[in-house]
Amino acid sequence: MFGFMLFLHLTGLFTWLGSLFAIVVMLLILKKQLGSQESNTLAKRVIHIFSMFAHPSAVIVLISGVVMIVQMEIGPNKPFWLDMMEKGGGTIILLALVLTGILGSKVKKRLSIGQNQNIRMSGYLTTLTTFMVLIVSVVLIVSTKI
Q1: So where does this one cross the membrane (predicted)?
Q2: CA dihedral over 131, 135, 141, 144, signed as positive or negative
Q3: Is 33 within 8 Å of 43 (Cβ atoms)?
Q4: Using CB atoms within 10 A of its CB, is residue 139 exposed (0-12), middle (13-18) or buried (19+)?
Q5: Which of 10, 38, 39, 79 is the most buried (most CB within 10 A)?
């Protein structure tokens, strides 16, 4: 059971991180063309489609991580890396789900009404990039078992 949970955890992590990366890259490419109906529709679809991968995979990472930690039965004297994975990783996942969901819907709303004007996406892109850096930081700490 632990091996299957580890598989789900890693697969969810790769899918989540890849989806966030795809949103950032594609929106940066589309940023200069925004303002036309076609470009705005494409940007909304990019956010919608990759969010459909990112949010469920983040939930899978959270659930599989909790199950694995419960199965380990370590107790209160956990090493730092495990504590960081449990508390830091869980907090990052929950914050990412809430913030990217809210900011993504705001950007999609702006794209719907923003014909022929400059559409601000810098806050959304910065948030996604920040979460990618935080995710990779937790992975680094856990993989080096600091």
Answers
A1: 6-30, 50-72, 84-103, 124-143
A2: negative
A3: no
A4: middle
A5: 39
Given a cut of 90, is residue 52 above it in pLDDT? Answer: yes
Phi, psi of 36 (to 5 degrees): -85, 155
Instruction: Count how many domains the chain has.
Output: 1
What's the pLDDT at 9? 95
What's the CA gap between 89 and 1, in Å, rounded? 21
Which pLDDT tens digit goes with each residue over 68-94?
Answer: 988 888 877 888 888 888 899 999 999
First to last CA, the chain: 26
Instruction: Determine the Cα angle at 17 with ends 15 and 20, to 5°.
Output: 105
Tokens of residue 129, six digits? 């990039």
Q: pTM of whole model > 0.85?
A: yes
